């Protein structure tokens, strides 16, 4: 079996590539990082090491890689032959890789007409659907009909913390032991791809919201408040009782929302929250606040981990989501010079004023009480230490 995976980065090698290998696939990674591509082709294997006391090491074999900048035709041919296509490139890159995917799928329709699932493993709601929309953009009506017949873009939720890697061995990836990969099987046409470790469900929404609004919300709050307090890493941030309490209060807000919306049991959800906070505290992982807080414009988007639960909290639970608003305010103050999205946010605030910038970034509407709450928290936060 052949898997084509876009993005040979941390999650690509450390999570998706690992499970594909353990499920018996040969994985062809597609990436634009020439050094990583060459190393994968030279070594044909890499190591994944668990970040716990065991430091257990697993070897991932049966791998190759294509540099999509140099060999776009090879990518197309790999898609024609693939039994599954997955991605972990970052949400902003999905429209870029859609171009090679559409070319590969067109050739596949012409040559073998076999069913194929294309699964985006990114931190967002409806990632595969977003990729599908980009793929379908340039198709004729007839082509859309053919693609609908053979190709599925099931949405997925992926959860495993893989920090930036600092190993001498450039292919080795250190990962936390925990993982969860949930795929919406109701969106799959034909056979469900046999990937060990994937949970197939008929309705992904509760799973993706539970994960995004707990793991990713909690992590983002720790990152933005940590950065604001002058800290470099997540463990440093959570060593502050004040920030840890802010994370807990925020997850209590998202927890109230999730419990009410999906009828989760409160005690079970509280255990889930505790498990997540313990994952953030993993002493075998050093995770930079600038990695976890990266791309703040995306993270402040209407459907992402901060604004979406804050909006829904007011509608579903009622009352003020004070701690979510504090996290949003901290994200608006995140001014890392090396992060283009952080720079853009600061420019928007500078040029248009805070209120207009919030409307533009979050798509919240004029008159929203949440905007007033965010501004209140923004002022309370003061200057960065
Ligand atoms: N690192 C983590 O703990 C987790 C990350 N994710 C998600 O996985 C995705 C990837 O994240 P990471 O692996 O951390 O990032 P990363 O930066 O380590 O990996 C991204 C890879 O995509 C490659 N890439 C960029 N443009 C490309 C293109 N046009 N074609 C092919 N490859 C391209 C990069 O060269 C890089 O190797 C993101 O959406 C992230 O939200 C999800 C869960 C956990
Ligand atoms: O990958 P993103 O969406 O930029 O955000 C970083 C988040 O992703 C993770 O890497 C894994 O879910 C978390 O560590 C963090 O919450």
From TrEMBL:
Belongs to the mannitol dehydrogenase family. Keywords: NAD, Oxidoreductase. HAMAP family: Mannitol_dehydrog. InterPro entries: 6-PGluconate_DH-like_C_sf, 6PGD_dom2, Mannitol_1_phos_5_DH, Mannitol_DH, Mannitol_DH_C, Mannitol_DH_N, NAD(P)-bd_dom_sf. The keyword Isomerase does not apply. One of its GO terms (cellular component) is cytosol. GO terms for molecular function: mannitol-1-phosphate 5-dehydrogenase activity. Residues 203-379 form the Mannitol dehydrogenase C-terminal domain. One of its GO terms (biological process) is mannitol catabolic process. PANTHER family: ALTRONATE OXIDOREDUCTASE-RELATED (PTHR30524:SF0), MANNITOL-1-PHOSPHATE 5-DEHYDROGENASE (PTHR30524). Its EC number is 1.1.1.17. It comes from Halalkalibacter nanhaiisediminis. This is Mannitol-1-phosphate 5-dehydrogenase. It is an enzyme of class 1 (oxidoreductase). NAD(+) binds at residues 3-14. Residues 2-194 form the Mannitol dehydrogenase N-terminal domain. It catalyses: D-mannitol 1-phosphate + NAD(+) = beta-D-fructose 6-phosphate + NADH + H(+). Signal peptide: none annotated. The keyword NAD applies.
């Amino acid at each position: 079996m052949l898997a084509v995976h876009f993005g040979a980065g941390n999650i690509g090698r450390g999570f998706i590539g690992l499970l594909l290998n353990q499920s018996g696939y040969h994985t062809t990674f597609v990436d634009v990082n020439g050094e990583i591509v060459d190393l994968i082709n030279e070594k044909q294997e890499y190591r994944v090491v668990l970040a716990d006391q065991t430091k257990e090491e697993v070897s991932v074999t049966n791998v190759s890689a294509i540099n999509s900048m140099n060999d776009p035709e090879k990518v197309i041919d790999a898609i024609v032959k693939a039994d599954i296509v997955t991605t972990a490139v970052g949400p902003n890159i999905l429209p870029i890789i859609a171009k090679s995917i559409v070319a590969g799928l067109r050739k596949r329709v012409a040559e073998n007409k076999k069913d194929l699932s294309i699964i985006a493993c990114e931190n967002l709601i409806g990632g595969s659907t977003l990729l599908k929309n980009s793929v379908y953009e340039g198709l004729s009506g007839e082509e859309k009909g053919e693609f609908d017949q053979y190709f599925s873009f099931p949405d997925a939720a992926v959860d495993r913390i893989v920090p930036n890697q600092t190993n001498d061995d450039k292919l080795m990836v250190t990962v936390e032991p925990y993982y969860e990969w949930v795929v919406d099987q109701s969106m799959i046409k034909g056979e469900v791809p046999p990937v060990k470790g994937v949970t197939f469900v008929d309705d992904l929404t509760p799973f993706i919201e539970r994960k995004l609004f707990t793991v990713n919300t909690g992590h983002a709050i720790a990152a933005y408040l940590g950065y604001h307090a002058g800290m470099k890493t997540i463990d440093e941030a959570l060593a502050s009782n004040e920030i840890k309490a802010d994370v807990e209060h925020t997850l209590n807000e998202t927890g109230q929302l999730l419990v009410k919306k999906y009828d989760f049991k409160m005690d079970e959800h509280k255990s889930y929250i505790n498990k997540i906070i313990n994952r953030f505290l993993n002493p075998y992982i050093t995770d930079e606040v600038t990695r976890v807080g990266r791309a703040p414009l995306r993270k402040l988007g209407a459907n992402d981990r901060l604004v979406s639960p804050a909006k829904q909290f007011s509608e579903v639970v009622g009352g003020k989501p004070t701690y979510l608003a504090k996290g949003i305010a901290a994200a608006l103050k995140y001014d890392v010079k090396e992060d283009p999205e952080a720079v853009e946010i600061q420019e928007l605030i500078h040029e248009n004023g805070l209120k207009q910038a919030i409307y533009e970034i979050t798509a919240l509407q004029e008159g929203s009480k949440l905007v007033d709450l965010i501004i209140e928290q923004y002022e309370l936060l003061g200057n960065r230490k």
